[in-house]
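To whoever picks this up:

The nightly regression suite flagged Proline dehydrogenase as changed. Nothing in the input moved, so I suspect the structure step. Input below, exactly as stored in the fixture:
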Amino acid sequence: MTLKPAMYLGQHFKLSTFHCLQVTLNRSISTQGRNRHSTTANHDTQFTVQDPMTGPGLPSGRPSHRPLKSLPLPALLRTIFLGQLFASPALSNMGMGMLSRLASTRSALLDPDRNIILNKVLRALVYNHFCAGNEQREIVPVLDRLKASGYAGVILQYAREIVAHGAAESSKVDVSSQHIQMWLEGNLKTLSCLSKGDYMGMKYTGAGQRIAEALKAGDEPPAEFSAALHQIMRTAQAQGTRIFLDAEQQVFQTTIDRWTVDLMRQYNVDGEVLVLNTYQAYLKATRGIIRDHLKLAQQEGWALGVKLVRGAYILHDIRSRIHDTKADTDASYNGIAQSLLTRSYDDIGTENFPKVRTFLAGHNANSIQRAAKLHKNLVLQGDKPSTLEFGQLYGMADHVSGELLLRVEAAREAAQHLTGQEAETQKQVAPRVFKCVHWGSVRECLHFLTRRAAENQGSSDRLRDGLLEARRELWARLRGN
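Regenerated output under the current build:
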């Protein structure tokens, strides 16, 4: 009997299949590349796992330490399956080529929103692992499950976007008013799925080619787009949901920064932070850009929202503007995070340092754990570090998220045995952890999925560590732990 893909990835996996998977994992992990110093700037260096029963970054090393204990079985199995896929250069290149072609095709046969069979295949293989769905009835249960498993909240984002090199072809069919209206409705639909304390991610280019062209030209936002944008802001503000403005390709980014700073001037006032801009640490100019924005916030009296990422557009960005080595990108990310948390950034001292909300989005466990420890130490010393939150993408780096959730659990347990200020301090020590979830049709999510494939393809160390942790969790469940 031949197993159907859904059964292969579902909860009816047979024990013999688990055994075969274990053998395959042992072989693949032992033969994966050992080079931990890639010069590609967006590759993530991870902690070294020395013992399959000792988790990364463990305070005690006990076998009961299970960062993936709350991960549903289907997601755990897909993590192993996709990790195996991306660990193979041949299979990974084939998958990347397929996704890239589907993302740019104009053929109805290759359009997953029209081709039912292709839609089901993509959903089973990648879409369901990285995306929440296309309708509210699909999306909300995913968000509820994440919150129930310990996350402080979620980041939800409509995946539709414009890719710069497709501008000439896209403009022939673009109807700007219709695209802006679709973008507005998509973001309002996103907000309707969220609650107070959650985040919504947003891309300006999702509003269509006219907006992409305005970004490229350095223009002011068109009036119709501006009205839609402020409607979204007011709706988010009323329900207590914050907004991330995503970084995009360099051809758009200078104008994105300017438009977003204008939003922060208007909405990040009176001690509140509604809007956060995204800064990519793999770009050489990023530290200076954040410094300039801090000075503006300091001079003009508004709060700066910083979402720090490593960078996701290496396939499109100009290579010379990206840090030369992986180590340089690590130093950039870690240095920016430390300066923001300690409220001492280059020539901007702690005195009159502007209010900052810092969100560290990343899959590099060393960087994330380093920031979490620094924040904890600052709190215990009685300092008042910048507000800090963490986030990882849905379907990726679950072991990194899990380590943070274990910190949350430990801090809460410690607080139960304390009273007064000591208990309050323990609560402040607990990191706030989020998962970033994308939604949209399979076709709308293809550019996002292509970038995720590229990121996985270039991160063999992270994949190896993720596979080891997933394997350990799988066998813990088989043993009935």
